Amino acid sequence: MSDVATYLAAGTRDNTRRSYQAAVEHFEVNWGGLLPATAESVARYLADHAASHSINTLKLRLAALSQWHATQGFADPTRAPVVRQVLKGIRALHPAQEKQAAPLLIEHLKQVVQHLQRQAQQGAALHDLPMQMRARRDLALVLLGFWRGFRSDELARLQVQDIQANAGVGMTLYLPHSKADRQHVGTHYSTPALKTLCPVQAYIDWLTVAGIAHGPVFRKLDRWGHLAESSLNSNSLVALLRRIFAGAGVDPALYSSHSLRRGFATWAIANGWDLKSLMSYVGWKDMKSAMRYIDPTVSFGALAVERALLIE
Questions:
Q1: What is the mean pLDDT of residues 162-185?
Q2: One domain, residues 247 and 149
Q3: To 10 degrees, the CA torsion angle through 104, 107, 108, 112?
Q4: Number of independent structural domains in the chain
Q5: Each residue of 27-68: pLDDT tens digit?
């Protein structure tokens, strides 16, 4: 790979690169489109999949085709008026409400934590190290994901050498890059230690039982207790979290990895956080992104009235 190709690849997130590659293959192989494409063929492609694909999926396919033409030095057919008009028509004739995972409510978080703590204690009592390690890993994953509002890819990228944790005090974390960090300047996070449901102590307990001193924080663990050298794949976290929730008696069908992030946002707003503070803490750059994660049943107006009545 040339130096230019290397840097071009580094400038695109792995998940995005895989998604774009799959989208281009779908256009070329599955549908039979020719590359470079014409605006008319792209418009027909959109029309053929209008009823079976969501508008977000179609927009991703257009972004992938756009990037392919740009990197190959061809004119971008996705910017043609006919393509834009067809997409607008699809949005009008096939309206669909965006599906969102349910927020993990604090009472369900407590239920999950209690289950995992029992598992860890049982593993220690039975001298079952794999059982104990799995419970401690899952406990740290859930609590850190919830209280920091991390995305699945951010949890997967966490490295031990980039985290400082002090029991009873708090922890600081550094991520060299994330979805919101478009310039790859890195982001520092912090979270305090809590009296209950503490992510700091859960993280320390996990590192202690796993004996990890360097490298990825969250790793695959096999049935014999062998830890992988590499981190968990971010795409596998949904299945892992659903197994955790199911084990705790919480309906897993309602949740995804976004449930931790939405759960924290819902908890924060319900406990008096203003939107600006929440956006700064989680790392949202615009209000539209923040509002996608906040439970619409939580009313800002009602909360303001309730706090005013309490003051009186």
A1: 81
A2: yes
A3: 120
A4: 2
A5: 999 999 999 999 999 999 999 999 889 888 999 999 999 999
